[in-house]
Specification:
Alpha-Beta Plaits; single chain; Arc Repressor Mutant, subunit A; four-stranded antiparallel sheet; alpha+beta
Length: 186
Amino acid sequence: MNLYIKYMVSLRCKMVVKDELKKLGLHYVVVDLGMIEILEDITTGQRDQLKANLLRFGLELLDDKRSILIEKIKAVIIEMIHYSDELPQVNYSEYISEKLGYDYTYLANIFSEVKGITIQQFIITHKIEKVKELLLYDELNLTEIAYKMHYSSVAHLSNQFKKITGLSPSFYKQLKHKRNSNLENI
């Protein structure tokens, strides 16, 4: 049996869900971002208890099909951007459609209707978050980051970064160095 969970976007969330399943005596096959597969059927009482327990951690057990589909879309995007070593070589729309087994137009319409932003805007926001992370790691230069994140150029990345954050990538990186030097002077 599959259950879907809203706001389950990190490894820490997965640990919380696993702990809560154990407390209820439920055995899982898979605990993935936004989705868990358990071996046995879940009783109404267990479902209500799991729902209440997860809510304490800011996680929400989903019931309706549209919310479940939105969470699946978000999970595919988050997995693709934050947890994959390489972004897919195909268009994101093709990738998402293939992963979920739905026509992309259908997915895009539902996503926009429910979330109030497009899938593309959601992807850009997460790509910029990943870029911020890569800038702070200081292991790659901006050209390498642009290539890794599939930007057509450093200028394209910089423009999108500034549009989302209000800062240039180099200024964002300087802020980190300033914070670190200020901490050293305390």
